Amino acid sequence: MANPKEKSAEPGAAQTLWDARTEYVGDNSAVGKLIGLLEFPDSLTYQFFALQTGEDERGVELNFIQDTNRSLTDLETWQLDKNALLLFALIGNLEDVRCSVVDKEGGNVVLHQTRAWADKVVEGDIRDYGESAEKLQELLQLAAAANPKEINAEAPSNATHPTITINGRHYFYT
Length: 174
Known about the structure:
Layout: H1 13-19, H2 28-36, E1 44-52, E2 59-66, H3 74-90, E3 96-102, E4 108-114, H4 115-122, H5 133-145, E5 163-166, E6 169-172
Parallel strand pairs: 2-3
Antiparallel strand pairs: 1-2, 3-4, 5-6
Helix pairs in contact: 1-5, 3-5
C-alpha cells in the first residue's frame, strides 16, 4: 500500500472516514480501509498493519519505516496520535493502537496509545465522536486546533500560546 496522502484534510474527509467505520477490530478488510484513509507524516513510509485480536486483545499495530535517522518530531508524533484518536473513534471495540517506527539503522520506536488515553485527551468517551460524520468532523477540528509546533523538551516560560503535556509530550495550541 502506498503512503496515504493528506486525505483527512480534504473536503468531505469526515464523511469518508465515518462511512468506513467498523464495530470490530477483527474486521481486517474494514480496518485496512480505515487505515488507508489516514494521513501519515511525510518522513514515514507506511508498511503494513497487524491486528491484535487474541482472547484479551483488541488492538491495531501500524508499522512504518522512517526515511531519516533522527527522532520523531513532536509534530510527527502528534500526527500518529491524531490517527490513534480517529481509530479509537471509528473502531467500536478498539482498546490499543501501537505505531512501530523502524529507522534506516534498524532502531525501533513504538508509540502505544490506549482507549483510556484517548478518553482523557477528549475529556469524555472517544467513541462519541464516531456517532456521526458531524461528530467526527468535531474531532478533526479539535485535532487540527491542537496541532503542535515543533518544540523543545520543555515549553519556554515566556510562551505566548497555551501548552499541554500529554504522556510527557508538550504541545502548543495556536
